[in-house]
Records
---
Amino acid sequence: MKETPIKKKYEAIVIGASAGGLAALTAILPNLSKFLALPVIVVQHLSPDSDDFLATHFNRICSLCVKEAEDKEPIMDNTIYFAPANYHLMVEQDKTIALSTAERVQYSRPAIDVLFETAADAYADRLIGIILTGSNSDGTKGIQRIRELKGLVIAQSPESAQVNIMPLSAINQAGVDKILDLKEIAPYINQITEKET
Amino acid sequence: MTGDLKNKTLENERLEIQMLLEAIHQKYGYNFKDYASAHTKRRLHHRLNISNMSNYAQMMHRIIYDEDFFNSLLLDLSINITEMFRDPMVYKKIRRELIPRLKTYSFIKVWHAGCSAGQEVYSISILLEEEGMKHRSQIYATDFNELILDKAKKGIYPLEVMKTYTGNYQQSGGKNDFSDYYTADYDNVILRQSLKEKVLFSSHNLVTDGVFGEMNLIFCRNVLIYFNRQLQNRVLKLFYDSLCPGGYLCLGSKESLKFTDMEDKFEPIADREKIYRKKRLP
Ligand SMILES: C[S@@+](CC[C@H](N)C(=O)[O-])C[C@H]1O[C@@H](n2cnc3c(N)ncnc32)[C@H](O)[C@@H]1O
């Protein structure tokens, strides 16, 4: 069945991943179009003493520029940002990054909820939120906020997730707009964010 | 439609928070208006949820009439999380590269701005003692939260965190047995009195208070991230004015002078450790 995707001018994408996230992100980030004209901000749960290997690694294999997010940094299109280990990443109303060492949320820092909730407040219905594999329910509250403000939410299908607890929690507790298999996510994003010519 | 949604939900909320911060400012003199707004909003929201209130108007009333409630909110907004020898590599760098240069001075002054419960202060106190510089140094430790300053003065910490502190100390290049620096007392440890000898604790608000003169080394770690860019610039100017020429500024590991007005007034000494040096004027 062919359906026409909802075309809207999206302004940002946020992605949350936990256990199994490295493989899931590897299936998505390098396959995003290099013409993707918006920022992608990622929280991957990490041990507190990790260095910036995620950003370094993905920068090598992605066509978009990948970097670790810095405090007060203006958020740019065509760029993928990773939250640093042991810091929450928040999006400010003026589309800059704010980091914080506030206490853990859902046992995590960085927490997906913190990114999703603040990004929802900054981008409202121009935001796409994607929740991937993971073994806890971080992200669910953030998705509630994205949906309240009419953003678009995509969950990795629990069958295609290495650990299905996180997408299941999102789907059951918050509800999502789309459930996609891992390999379908990047093409879908490329399609709905494609500039009309 | 974006406009409508934003107007309704977000604009009202923004307005409520603005009024609330104004009330705090007028009633208690603390100005949070130039803090990073995403941060302030999250903290207020958190307090709202855990105190079973349904809106900020209710909360504002409570703030005005209930000082204890305000004090707990002050703790929420100020984030006091800290450790001894937090980011051990920073201390290692200080020991290896700054200390030899600081030793050329007959006397040094150190300022910890936003010292929280004192862990960072006592870490430097230990380091200076081990490097034989304690007797010719003075440490100023300031915070705007009096409750947290009282804790700092006591230097009593829960036993359970000592494992982390000990690990940090060892990684930082510490020369002794860390347990030499405290005595255990049931669930707590008390730091050795001699670590407090050269420390002066006092209340100082970075938003409103002025310069501390002629410092050789200023620590302001994990404080500036809670400020917006304007306030960061103001406070960095304050540090610039408080440092002697060639003095050092040490920021938190995810803070930097990048994106600020002061970038060209300092030279980076250690990129990862976020140590800068005030340029001498030509
Ligand atoms: C996260 S702690 C940092 C403690 C320590 N420097 C460290 O890095 O481990 C932040 C501290 O900054 C203090 N602070 C926040 N705003 C301040 C202000 N305007 N003036 C002085 N201190 C402030 C808070 O009370 C808190 O103790």
---
Amino acid sequence: MTDINETVKPLPLIQAKQVNKVFANGCHALKDVSLDIFPGEVVVIIGPSGSGKSTFLRTLNQLESISSGHILLDQVDLTDSRTDINKVRADVGMVFQAFNLFPHKTALGNVMLAPLKVQRQSKAEAQQTARDLLTRVGLADRFNNYPSRLSGGQQQRVAIARSLAMKPKALLFDEPTSALDPEMVGEVLDVMKELAKEGMTMVVVTHEMGFAREVADRVVFMEDGELVLEETPERFFDSHHPRLQRFLGQVL
Amino acid sequence: MQTNSSRWSGHALYLLIMAMLLSGVYFAGQKIDYSWHWERLWPYIVNTESQDIVAITDGTALVDESGQLTIQPDFGGDPQVVQRYDTLVSRNGDLIFQGDTIARIDGWRFGPIAQGLWVTIKISFISLIFAVLLGIIFGLMRVAHGQVWRNLALTYVEVIRGTPLLVQIFIVYFFIGTVFDLDRFTAGVAALSIFTGAYVAEIVRAGIQSVPVGQMEAARSLGMNYAQAMLYVIMPQAIKRTLPPLAGQFINLIKDSSLVSVISITDLTKAGREVVSGSFAPFEVWFTVAALYLLVTGGLSWMIQRLEKRLAASD
Ligand SMILES: Nc1ncnc2c1ncn2[C@@H]1O[C@H](COP(=O)(O)OP(=O)(O)O)[C@@H](O)[C@H]1O
Ligand SMILES: [Mg+2]
């Protein structure tokens, strides 16, 4: 971030305050997690499997309810029962590890569905936006393909275009490249880097350390449901924090 | 991998076995002391004989210059006017008693078997529509978040699946039918719809639950509410998966509809029973009735298969 931003610090876009999540089976998946995400920022979350990364991400758009604490989007408390949760979800897009494209819709149909049904756009408008977005993620020649006829990398790019169609304020990525064959990881990361460059606010759970180093404004390390460390990439990867060292030793 | 030649020899063997079975049935039919009269059946399907026009009152026959036949009751009351007929049986001035044949009309009309077939198709089709509606409503209730809905739907499914259809038909006709003053046909449709609806509900539930949870999450993440996600994302996928079991359930419905004959609805089965006593050709009648059921169920299977093919575009 630039100096100007440091002196006149903007309000956070997303705020997690003392978030706890205890599942019905008693599993305490999030323990007092607090994190501020500012507009235009890219925050990368890393941590071992089962540390609560997905759970945390899913609380940010309320796919997962929280047991205590607060989540604020643009200063609006999501745990408040008066908050229109569907409106919030339209503002916070989510990209999944398993893509979760709608198999009964073409690439174009996947991208158009929510703008048509949720925002009640005209068909012409929704189609124009969908074509533009698919072109932007490099799929201009795949408009009418069904997901079953697309590679993993292509499917994930359609999924990103689908989220962008709702013009979200922030995008959440849950291990977007983990289900991909190695040769397709690059094409998805490239799209994400492009988005970051354009100023999209992003929270990314990933094991791609190169991406974290190159794109992230801040890197967060989670373990056992706790937010252990939160640093700029340079400081993060030079950190001598013992738990982080142990984790990095395992993955690198 | 199946080779082409093994497939053809399979077909040939099948034809041979079927020919042996059918000739077995044929020779068994020859051996028993039974004279086959397929031609007796025809009038019960389409009746081409001229029809009698019967006097509905006692009176005097009057034929005017235009040929119109009127039965003028002797002691007042409305006259019976017959405008269309082909052969006149009574003459001007004849004394007519109620029930006498006064004229005949040519042409054809459907016999009881064709009419019974029509009733079976009608009752099955109407019941099918209501069963699908009930099935979707209760299937959605089975997967709803509210415990009340789930309990209610489960009760419906268990009660209906745990009691025989025949008993349900009697209960609907004699109890509910009396309370709400339902006619036979409505009672029959109600019983069949409620019965089939319970099975459709379970099929719909299984279909919805077979769609990966990620689909609901993706839809909700895009800002759709629960109803929109169900309608535009989950149900289209669920319906595709439910078509094969639904086809089986619809075929059961057509066959189960034969049970409504117990409340005196003249469906195909009851028509068959009536025709047997009139035609003295029980074997022919029942073979025909079976073939007609097969025709209806086969037609339905074929339509559902076409629908499945159409929906397979995205596979
Ligand atoms: N629906 C659930 N019910 C119960 N426990 C869950 C559920 N989802 C996740 N968990 C538990 O919560 C913990 C964190 O899981 P998760 O957020 O998926 O971790 P990560 O994404 O970091 O691998 C794990 O111990 C997991 O077993
Ligand atoms: Mg995870």
